[in-house]
Each structure stands twice: as C-alpha cells, then as structure tokens.
Amino acid sequence: MSYKDRETLSPGTELDTDTLIAELKWDNNGLVAAIAQQYDSKDVLMLAWMNETALRETLQTGRACYWSRSRGKLWRKGEESGQVQLLKEIRIDCDGDTLLLLVDQTGPACHTGRRSCFYTRLYPEPAQILTAPLIDPATLYSK
Amino acid sequence: MSYKDRETLSPGTELDTDTLIAELKWDNNGLVAAIAQQYDSKDVLMLAWMNETALRETLQTGRACYWSRSRGKLWRKGEESGQVQLLKEIRIDCDGDTLLLLVDQTGPACHTGRRSCFYTRLYPEPAQILTAPLIDPATLYSK
C-alpha cells in the first residue's frame, strides 16, 4: 500500500507505523520537511528537516529531533538552548513528504529568542517586524 | 541588510518588500517552502513551494499561487478545483527560506477532498486516518 492507496481510507482506519515511515518520500538528501506547531495555541513555530534517524529518535524520546542541514548532524532541539519541544502528535501529509509536529515548546522556538521563527511580515504592507525576543539569545546559548 | 542583520530589529520596524523578496534564500531550484495555514482556525492546510514568479503573482492577485514541482509549472491553487486560497498575510521565517501564508481556504485544500493534507496520524499510536473528504475528489476535478 502507498500514500496514494491510503487516500480513500475512512477515518479511524488503523495503519502500521513502520510501513508509514518506510514509505515516506525522502528527498535526494534523505530528508522530509517537518513543520512544528504549538499544540494548543496552534501557532506555527518553525520549519525544519528530518531524516529517518531523527524521526525515530523523536518517536522514541518524545522530544523533537531534527537534521540540521547547515551543521550536517542531528539537532536535538533544545540541547544547547534548553528550549525543548515535547511531542504531542505527528501527522503526515497526503503524499508523504511533509510532517506536521504538534509540540509543546518550552520558551522560544527561534534562535533569535522569539517564540516563532515567523516574525517578519511580508504582506500586507508595510512589511515589518512583528514580535520581540522573549529571551536575549546571548543568554540562551551561553549555557 | 540581510535576514541575519534584521534579527535584532524591534517590533513595528518597517521593511522594504522588494528587499525582503530579493534576499529570500531560494534553494537550488529557485524555490522556498510555503506553509498554508487557515487564518482563523489556525489549522495547517498544506506545504507547497514558490518561486519568485509565484510569490509575486500571489502578492498581486491576493490568491495563493505556487510552483508545482511535479508538473513543473505555476500552480494557481484552485484553478482546476475551484478551491482557492484568499491571501490574508504572508510571514517569512528568520533565515528567509520559508514562507507562512495565512489564507482563507474555500472548501478542501487537499486533492483528496479533505480540508487539510495532514489527515494521517503517525503518533501517538495507533497510527490512523483522521478525517474524511468534505467533497468527493472525482467531483472536484471533473469541472
């Protein structure tokens, strides 16, 4: 069965976790996009990437672990800053190339110290900065 | 000024739209990721991709236009299905490689006829299908 084949299944149909993971559409770098959303406010916090190892660690530990494309290694969210994401739910999109993580974010998700990475408004005009840091990033990363 | 340089700006600081667009971090295919979120319910609807042409058309028309990677052409959301996304707001993430579109989605965002593409739960177990189509996709694409 593929993601395409599952499109017609009814709500409540149970699926095999390992099959869903095996059939994810990893890109040429072995990654899928992962959107992190605060589970209660529903604010979108950030977009990151996961390889299979990061996804399996996230499932095992209940804390979000991503793959850092810039650093080329696993990125256990909060390992430096202390601002972890406790996992509430993971959903997969219709074609199996994007994950939606519902998380409980401790403090800021963004490296700038802001709650969300999406703090710059492009539209409507005027484009502007929307939010301030919750914490000085110099404090976040000095631990 | 770069996205990095703007990190320390205060809320309300106004920015130049064309500069923000020019400095987006387009990937090797000239694309940025675009998350579509229903503006009032805050449900995440889908993840798609935009090139500069798609972004500028979206800003000009007030309706979401993406770049279809599978079809290799502009994808005016709803042009076949009639299920358009009226643009409310666009936000850019801290490093300028992801857009968050707040939209008012007419009917289903997903090609399966479901409101959201994220209808498959991976975690917590049991993994399962969460939602049913609002509309039979055979009806959506027969117009």
Summarize model confidence as the mean pLDDT of chain A: 96
* Main sheet: strand order of chain A: 3-2-7-6
Radius of gyration based on Cα positions of chain A: 17 Å
What kind of assembly state do the chains in view correspond to? homodimer
Give the strand tally of chain A: 9
Largest sheet of chain A: 4 strands, mixed
Global structural class of chain A? alpha+beta
CATH architecture term of the domain at 27-107 in chain A: Roll
Specify the CATH homologous superfamily of the domain at 27-107 in chain A. Phosphoribosyl-AMP cyclohydrolase
Low-confidence stretches of chain A: none
H and E order of chain A: EHEEHEEEEEEH
Supply the CATH class of the domain at 27-107 in chain A.
Answer: Alpha Beta
The interface involving the most residues is between: A-B, 55 and 57 residues
Which fold name is given in CATH as the topology of the domain at 27-107 in chain A?
Answer: Ubiquitin-like (UB roll)
Give a structural overview.
Two copies of one chain form a homodimer. With 143 residues, the first copy, chain A, is α+β, with helices and mostly antiparallel strands. Chain A has a domain at 27-107: Phosphoribosyl-AMP cyclohydrolase (Ubiquitin-like (UB roll), Roll). Chain A contains three helices and nine strands. Chain A is globular and about 50 Å long. At the A-B interface, strand 1, helix 1, strand 2, strand 3 and strand 6 of A face strand 1, helix 1, strand 2, strand 3 and strand 6 of B. Chains A, B: It catalyses: 1-(5-phospho-beta-D-ribosyl)-5'-AMP + H2O = 1-(5-phospho-beta-D-ribosyl)-5-[(5-phospho-beta-D-ribosylamino)methylideneamino]imidazole-4-carboxamide; 1-(5-phospho-beta-D-ribosyl)-ATP + H2O = 1-(5-phospho-beta-D-ribosyl)-5'-AMP + diphosphate + H(+). Chains A, B: It comes from Sulfurivirga caldicuralii. Chains A, B: Residues 46-119 form the Phosphoribosyl-AMP cyclohydrolase domain. Chains A, B: This is Phosphoribosyl-AMP cyclohydrolase.
